[in-house]
Batch of 2 targets.
Target 1
Amino acid sequence: MNKVPQLIDGAFVQSSTQEWISVTNPANNQEIAKAPIALQSEIDQAIAAAEMAFQTWKKVAVSERARVMLRYQHLLKEHHDELAKILSSETGKTFDDAKGDVWRGIEVVEQAANIASMMMGETVENVAKGIDTYSMIQPLGVCLGITPFNFPAMIPLWMFPMAIASGNTFILKPSEQDPLTPIRLAELFIEAGAPKGVLNVIHGSKDQVNYLLNHRAIRAVSFVGSVPVGQHIYKTATDNMKRAQCFAGAKNHSVIMPDANKEHVINNLVGASVGAAGQRCMAISVAVFVGNSKEWIKPLAEQIAKVKPGLWDDKEAGFGPLISPAAKARVLSLIQQGKEEGATVLVDGSNTTVAGYESGNWVGPTVFANVTPNMSIYQEEIFGPVLCCIEVDTLDEALELVNNNPYGNGTSIFTASGAAARKYQSNVEVGQVGINVPIPVPLPFFSFTGWKNSFYGDLHAYGKQAVRFYTETKTITSRWLDDDIPSGPNMTIDLK
Ligand code: NAD
């Protein structure tokens, strides 16, 4: 059986642990690999290696750090299909979707190759006579990334390339459910010329994360995952005086105005709601139909019903299985609660399976109408291929509904009216807004800016905000003595 190695001090090594976690193919739940639960001594070695590497890496020329990213980008593109196959094998994602997962990570590496311009400080000459002030951006030290199962390429790539390009060293603790993709990403990073100790990969689950969070040497913590874990990590990291950014769960609404283009709405909502089996933090899980647009609920449901789950290489498959039997049980239980609480089931995917793969974690596309905000299917993040449809009379009511929701990751509005779109973008309390674009995930020259319970922290992932997150600003005030030496002691705080 394939035992997943760890990356410690530049070497891919087998753990000496006795405890291993099964990595399975979600299409049949057969084991495809085993991931170690790292020993504390192995975590200590990884941190010591990262601390040591930081002393030299922070002094490497910024253009050389950028060149590592350029070589890495090239290798990732060369291995794009291979990475996507590995990713499909452990997540069940369709090949095209897996390629998208890798691609959105490659885009961040491209941005990391542009690091020099993002690390520029500021200068003001003559802040006082003969005195200049300038600022420089310096890396923090050892940074930690804890990633979820649903984007095993994109999310690790949100983190370590930006942190490392900024001059830090990094410990990655990927999801124990799909560690094969992240470890392959790490192999390619070493091949790209990253010096030993700059990136380290440790496997495990909550105990390993908690040990890392309490470790003196970790300066900053990036986390992506569920709300309860995100809250715990944010609290623990900040109680330990570490910087933290924690991206958490979501409930994303799409508001459909009656003047929108019906065909565009339906085409976009099908993929945005049940694509990737709904296991996207930016999936649209609630469609809010304003006024007469409610007439499109049935045609939308008919289109969604046509989407079939299937195997990663099945060209007809719209999405794959859920990640685990536990995830499937949770989604089925929420669908059941939706029925019991009085929502109307237009499409029911509870009893879906795929021939020959009956033991897989399949749930078919599911659409509920007449959903109300007090129902569990509205309140909980389902993280399955389930769309809840709600009807309201006005845009104001839609805004009130979305703003009362505790999550604020993404939202979209479909409309032909600039005024309606502008009102929505200005007043909605959600961090990422699409206008006639269903899943508004910003490209990496911007940042990924979830709000409310979808994010704990202040500086967000990738873009300029990531550079700020992974660095300190140092401000220098300097005077070079010339003939014009001020006379007598300066007894004030003013620069003279
Ligand atoms: P999860 O919270 O179960 O796990 C995420 C990571 O935390 C894993 O590496 C896991 O090992 C670790 N972990 C789990 N329990 C822990 C604990 N008690 N203490 C310390 N560490 C622990 O999340 P998941 O199921 O892998 O991912 C799905 C979730 O991630 C969804 O809620 C989804 O919305 C969210 N997500 C959010 C974003 C975003 O940008 N906001 C992006 C992707 C996924």
Target 2
Amino acid sequence: MSFRFTRAIVRPPSSNFADGLTSVSLGKPDLARALRQFARYCAALERCRLQLVTLPDDPEHPDSTFVEDTAVLAARCNVITRPGAPSRGGETTEIREALSGLDINTVSIETPGTLDGGDICDADGHFFIGVSQRTNWDGAQQLAAFLEKAGYSTASVDIRDVPDILHLKSGIASLGDNRVVAIDSLAGHHALKNHEIVHVSPGEEYAANCVRVNDYVLVAAGFPSFERTLKSLGYAAIALDMSEFQKMDGGLSCLSLRF
Ligand code: CIR
């Protein structure tokens, strides 16, 4: 089951977090507040019984707190990505070293492929691979080949014409149980036709980037309708304030690499 995890890699935002990439106009993030939100995020992962591997912050790469984009980790296949934004390329070096230090063997996406982990949604061993402004077809095909060789199935989802989302997982999330959360503009996609869709109300799209971790679903705070939906389906939600990360285009999932 793709939501059963024992560990997670996290990395705090660095002093120049505000210098990272963003396409939204929500103002400059407050670092002290971001660090408090990050601490609560880590505590929530621990409440879900994950052991954390916390890497030092990296001022060379202001977006490096978004560790999810640097790797795709599955039980039988661990892939170091090649992030689509040039300023983020160097973030993979320490992730590769950290995984190697944990005795996790990796393969890598190679040029001309680009791929961000935020475009990859593991739905119980069936992987949706987003093709986006960051993940190109070559990267998507390299990842599909790695995953299929390891016995997983894959489907690509082109999101380049879907407005307002950076990554595929800005708009969908797997809850396990054959359920996929989806914003309206992705809910009807043919790749999702074999899954039960859990809809996110218009105006609550940011909440779609939730994460099932063992017995809980981590969800961004401030989206009451979606929290009610989760509760009605029997999930225990942990709501987390993500405001400072949202200012930098970051979703809840991207702050950790779970495995
Ligand atoms: C970026 O634009 O790359 C970062 N500022 C945000 C990345 C967020 N990653 C994610 O949602 N997986």
